[in-house]
Design brief:
The chain is mostly helical and about 240 residues long. The protein has two domains: about 30-140, Serine Threonine Protein Phosphatase 5, Tetratricopeptide repeat; about 145-215, Serine Threonine Protein Phosphatase 5, Tetratricopeptide repeat, CATH 1.25.40. Helix content is about 75%, strand content about 0%. The chain has ten helices and no strands. The protein is elongated.
């Protein structure tokens, strides 16, 4: 009984507080409703933006398939600039950089690949863009910078899908630079770890390298300071003393 009285008193207290603060409660409820609507509107707009970006990119790709002529880098860049922050915009930027590379505009391609890396570091496509930067540097004859870029991929993106290609490129550049031990190590690592085309190609490069430079196939000589006693001569005279 006493418990029932306590609960009833608490109910009336709450009711009295609600009546006294009716306007405040209404405003709070309205505020929650506005926030909820705002979040819903934002999500809907983002969905619509993503859909529009995908459609715009699809139109550019469709023009390529219908005319048989690859769309210009500018067409892809236009999609990227119109739909920033969307998956379609990201892909468009990467495709623009790739098309610039195909057209032999390596410096411009490098700029767009680097822009992608800078603006979309967390994207799944960032590793592809990083490989594009390295390839563009190599195509411009900037070998030292290309080696650094390829090496950065192998060290900081070890599990990326593009890393085997970066390591193979490193081996080629090391070999061209006369850094044969480093080239051998790059090829060996790929040949042991990778199956399929890249592993086979690395093994082919490795075998050709060892064929031209047999010394690279020999195990390293271990230096030692220990003195080895000379072997006893087999033709020493035999004593016949009795």
């Amino acid at each position: 009984m006493e418990s029932d009285v306590t609960q009833t008193a608490a109910f009336y207290k709450t009711w009295a507080w609600a009546e006294a603060n009716k306007n405040l409660l209404v405003m709070a409820a309205a505020g929650i409703l506005v926030v909820g609507c705002g979040i819903g509107l934002y999500v809907w707009q983002q969905h619509e933006k993503e859909a529009s970006a995908s459609q715009a990119l699809s139109r550019v790709a469709t023009q390529t398939s219908l005319t048989g002529r690859t769309a210009s880098p500018e067409a892809f860049l236009k999609v990227a600039s119109q739909y920033p922050g969307t998956a379609g915009g990201e892909r468009a930027l990467l495709m623009a950089a790739g098309q610039l590379f195909v057209e032999g505009k390596y410096a411009e391609a490098q700029t767009q690949f680097q822009k992608f890396v800078n603006e979309h570091r967390d994207s799944e496509l960032a590793s592809e863009a990083a490989l594009g930067v390295a390839a563009a540097l190599e195509a411009q004859g900037k070998t030292a910078d290309a080696i650094k870029a390829y090496k950065d991929i192998t060290e900081h993106r070890p599990n990326a899908a593009v890393t085997p290609r970066a390591r193979l490129a490193l081996g080629r550049l090391y070999e061209a630079q006369g850094e044969l031990t480093q080239a051998r190590d790059a090829y060996q690592q790929l040949a042991r770890a990778e199956f399929g085309g890249i592993g086979q190609e690395a093994n082919l490069h490795l075998q050709q390298l060892l064929l031209k430079n047999p010394a690279l196939a020999q195990p390293p000589v271990v230096a030692t300071n220990s003195l080895v006693a000379p072997a006893a001569a087999t033709n020493a005279p035999v004593s016949n003393s009795k």
